[in-house]
Amino acid sequence: MEEEQRGTHDRIGGRDVSGLRQDGGVPTHVALLRGINVGGHNKVAMAELREVVSSLGHGDVATYIQSGNVVFTSDQSDTAALAAALEQAIATSLSVPARVVVLSREDLAQVARDNPYAGEPNPKAVHAVFLSGEPGPDVAERVAAAQQLAAEQGSPDTAQLVGRTIFMHTPDGYGRSDLAAALVKLGQKKTDTVTGTARNWATVTKLLAMCDG
Question: What gap in Å lies between CA 194 and CA 166, rounded to an integer?
Fold first, then answer.
């Protein structure tokens, strides 16, 4: 299960995140790593991660907290290709087999607009599971099954699949949620067509703010 950790954003090469904008036709992207720095496994220092991202030619590289959130600028628009290159570079340079989901700034803004739980005042009660690709019918079926099981158990937890994002509402706590535990396992089976990585709503809004400067 993905866990958010305390921390602040950093920068590389003297570039401040206040300069991260989509001016000049250069889009801003966000890379989300799955399963690093959780329970002492797949340890990655954010300074080293920023160096790896920068080594691929991306600019304005900044990280936020320790769960693997990177904001950068790139002249490439293919997010799947960007994710694949980052996965390979991280594996080669840091010896960590981390899956990566890359979104453009507009992708992230669309996720913010799509949030069906926008009325929830506690940002840690809402999580977004960002998927690596277009979900097939199997993903929708797993969301429905997890939600049905939660309802049968009397849990208030709910989930909705919107586009390439699964939104989860866990008012009694994400860490105690069976629904969340089931849905963040996407990508662990060899038969899974997509992988997913979860971020709480506080992190989502922070990353969007970093993109907007």
Answer: 12
Burial per residue of 187-207, b for 16 or more beta-carbon CB atoms within 10 angstroms, e otherwise: beeeebbbbbbbbbbebbebb
pTM assigned to the model:
0.87
Beta bridge partners, 192, equal none
Q: Is 8 domain-assigned?
A: no
Residue 207 is which amino acid? Answer: L
Q: 74 near 26, Cβ under 8 Å?
A: yes
Q: Is residue 188 pLDDT above 80, yes or no?
A: no
- Which pLDDT band holds residue 9 (cuts at 50, 70, 90)? low
Report residue 78 as tokens: 């293919």
Report the residue count for the chain: 213
pLDDT attached to residue 190: 72
Domain extent at residue 168:
119-204
Q: Among residues 65, 86, 109, which one ends one of the domains?
A: 109
Do 76 and 151 have their domain in common?
no
Q: Pick from 122, 187, 188, 134: which is nearest to 161 by CA? A: 134
